[in-house]
Design brief:
Elements (H helix, E strand, L loop, with lengths): L1 E5 L3 H12 L3 E5 L3 H8 L10 H7 L4 E4 L2 H7 L2 E4 L14 H13 L4 E5 L7 H12 L6 E5 L9 H6 L4 E4 L3 H10 L7 E4 L1 H32 L3 H9 L20 H14 L5 H24 L23
Parallel strand pairs: 1-2, 1-4, 2-3, 4-5, 5-6, 7-8
Helix pairs in contact: 1-3, 4-5, 5-6, 9-11, 9-12, 11-12
Bound molecules: nicotinamide-adenine-dinucleotide (NAD).
Nicotinamide-adenine-dinucleotide (NAD) binds next to α1 and α5.
């Protein structure tokens, strides 16, 4: 299938390369000229194990460009994989997504499926579809599908090639069949649902993992006071298959590009609909306090940090990245 990808970040580039690998003709679009120049030379702009190899192996099926007009004109499916950062109040900045929606409405000249991979608040896909249809410049039919992404940075290629599930939120039989066709060469279970449920699966999954981290951090804080060893406690808990051993590592809290914004976004959305998500609120608060606890601990040893030389360990969670 002829597929366009808007955004060549972690999600867009990995998606593009994997879709080319499973047989599609893929064009990746980005507004970042330097990134596109690198990609044109088959240079990978991010560190991801296996990505450079898979990219060069499938380079004949991949095109990189900043010219979205040309690409969206003929694409059968357009994936949106641009950033959705948080705003100051915790809500989601959807301006990048709507810019792509505008471009699709303006340039698409054949019936096409718009696949939203970006993490967007529940209800956004419905609005994007209405928005594109309202602004279409040509007499075509488009449909928006929610297809949230679950990859982790550092194992992104593996996660996409051998993921635990593909979630598709589609409203029509036609959209479902197009998505089945796109993913038919990936041997993964597909969960079909409506768009809002697909959007919620993404937030509910990320926020649950964040919650798990905050939970073990609270247990760790109490362990410290009571003389228990949180690593043993986590091991003992994690061997219970109902709990699982993932995301039970106590530390200074979660960070990265998704958990902080996705917890705040769902909490904000709940409040907006007059429903306070108390568990998520607690996860966020515990996470904020956890960072300060480290500082408090350090203060026990040093009255002032002025002039101290400090070594920081663990600045990257990509264990194979030798550049840091
Ligand atoms: N990074 C992750 O681990 C991860 C995992 C799952 C889901 N997500 C979600 O996927 C989305 C993308 O995340 P990311 O980490 O890949 O973002 P990113 O910031 O790494 O990449 C976004 C890219 O989009 C480009 N862009 C912006 N406007 C554009 C436009 N109009 N046309 C074409 N390109 C444009 C930017 O230049 C950038 O290269 C977010 O919603 C994020 O929450 C991220």
């Amino acid at each position: 299938m002829k597929i366009a990808i808007a955004g060549t970040g972690y999600v867009g580039l990995v998606t593009g390369v994997v879709l080319a690998h499973i047989g599609h003709e893929v064009t990746c679009v980005d507004i970042d000229k330097d990134k596109i120049e690198k990609l044109k030379k088959c240079e990978c702009p991010i560190f991801e194990p296996d990505l450079p190899e898979l990219m060069s192996k499938n380079f004949d099926k991949l095109t990189f460009t900043t010219d979205c007009a040309k690409v969206y004109t003929t694409a059968e499916a357009i994936f949106i994989a641009v950033g959705t950062p948080e705003k100051k109040d915790g809500s989601t900045n959807l301006s990048y997504v709507y810019t792509v929606a505008d471009q699709i409405a303006k340039y698409a000249m054949r019936d096409c499926t718009v696949v939203v991979k970006s993490t967007v608040p529940i209800g956004t896909n419905d609005k994007i579809e209405q928005y594109i249809i309202k602004n279409l410049k040509h007499n075509i039919s488009i449909e928006v599908v929610s297809n949230p992404e679950f990859l982790s940075q550092g194992t992104a290629v593996k996660d996409m090639l051998y993921g635990s599930r593909i979630v598709i939120g589609a409203e029509t039989v036609k959209a479902k069949s197009i998505m089945s066709e796109i993913y038919k060469n990936l041997n993964q279970p597909i969960i079909f649902t409506n768009r809002r449920s697909a959007e919620m699966i993404k937030y509910a999954s990320n926020d649950f993992l964040a919650l798990k981290i905050s939970y073990i951090n609270e247990i760790a804080n109490l362990c410290e006071v009571l003389g228990a060893d949180v690593e043993d406690v986590a091991r003992g808990m994690g061997m219970d298959p109902r709990i699982g051993d993932k995301f039970l590592r106590a530390g200074i809290g979660y960070g990265g590009s998704c958990f902080p914004k996705d917890t705040k976004a769902l909490h904000w959305l709940g409040n907006y609909h007059d429903y306070e998500m108390k568990t998520i609120k607690a996860a966020i608060e515990v996470n904020e306090n956890q960072k300060l606890r480290l500082l408090k601990k350090a203060r026990k040893y040093y009255e002032s940090f002025d002039g101290l030389t400090v070594a920081m360990l663990g600045l990257t969670f990509k264990y194979n990245d030798t550049r840091n």
